[in-house]
Amino acid sequence: MRVYVISKNGNPLMPCKPAKARHLLRDGKAKVVNRNPFTIQLLWECEENIQEVRCGIDKGCSTTGIACVGNSEILFSANVKHRNPVAVQQKEGSKTFVQVRAERRRSGRPSAKICHEKVHKTGESSKVNLKGNKVVTGMDGFKDKIAARTMQGKTLMYQELEKIAPLSCVYGYQTASFRKALSYPKEHWIDAVCIACLETGDIVPLDSSNHYSVWFRSKQTRRIFNTQPSKGGLIKQWQKYKGLASNGKDYILVDKRTKNFTLTEGYTLYQKGDVIDIVGKMSAASPTEIASINGKGKGFYYWIYQPDGNRKYASVSHKKVRLVEYAKTINYMSGDVAFIPS
Fold it and tell me: What's the whole-model pTM score?
């Protein structure tokens, strides 16, 4: 296992062993700047010498694998979960964000429902006359546009990556052949390791000690109305509050719609996604995350996320909560998890 290090100026350095990181922290020569992945920052000026590190990226539809290889070892690897495939639970089943957004968009233009159903459902051999005597045959042209947009996005991604470091692209069959020759299992992050080692031919041992699952959480949502509204109102009750502020003795409910809110001195604001430590139930070594704020009571509702995908739902008083880390948009979790919080 390696501990990530940044210089006093904020530049990334080569990772070190946990024992060396403990010595630096003990002697006051470094401080902790990130809990997961664990990262320290040096408090003294250094030469900032670094070595060559090759990064492999295996892009996929729902998951992208990333691996950084240097000194003949895996310094960092991760499976990045994309936001689009995360399912939104509806009464009729699970739907993606894109599908739900499309339904709401179409509901505002029922008359155009001009044309889309005919083009997408009649088949490739059928013809549909559109406005201006334009003829569209089934899915012809539609798939071409999707492919063109995809290639435009990939080209832009390649251009941005070339600004960071020299870039080279490989084909999927090359990665598969190299992986099979090494008898490695099929995983996105393992394919990324093969991509990083393909040109040099280096053989590195598979080490998952620095492996993470990366997922994204939006800090706020514009979703105000339900796709299938229930009786009694359309606005979600939990969206009424931004969070709960507490000083350990008293609490304040923070209204999300209040624009001139000023946090009272001595109070800490807790919001969805914050990492907390619960006195008597949790320790600093195993903190938990807030899944939602109980606006009507004086406590929290929270989930405990575990690597095997199991969850535990519970509540606790605000008097027993201590803030460990504020919620982040990009989240890292050691190993892979089956359940991705939304």
Answer: 0.71
Does residue 262 belong to any structural domain of this protein? yes
Q: How far is CA 280 from CA 287, 295, 316, 319, in A?
A: 12, 23, 10, 11
Q: What domain range includes position 245? A: 237-326
Same domain, 63 and 211: yes
Least confident of 36-45, 151-160, 222-231, 253-262: 222-231
Confidence bin at 256 (pLDDT 50/70/90): low
Would you say residue 169 lies in a domain?
yes
**Do residues 297 and 203 both lie within one domain?**
no
Examine the domain organization and report whether 69 and 205 are in the same domain.
yes
Number of domains in the chain: 3
Same domain (yes/no): 310, 264: yes
Chain segment 218-241, per-residue pLDDT in tens: 666 555 455 555 554 444 444 556
CA dihedral of 329, 335, 340, 342, whole degrees rounded to 10: -10
